[in-house]
Amino acid sequence: MSKVSNRTKIATALVGVLAIASSNLVVADPLTDVQKADSMIHADAAASQKNVDKYFDQAQDMLFEYGSVADERESLKSYNDYVASLVADQQKTMDSVQSDINGVDKLRQGVVPLMFKMVESLEQFVQLDLPFNSEVRTNRVNELKNLLNTAEVTLAEKYRLILDAYSIEREYGSAVAVNQGKLNLDGKEVLVDFFNLGRVALYAQSLDQKTGWMYNPESKGWDKLDDSYLRELTKGIRIARKQGALDLFALPIPAAETAQ
Question: Which InterPro entries match (predicted)?
Answer without folding.
Answer: UCP028069
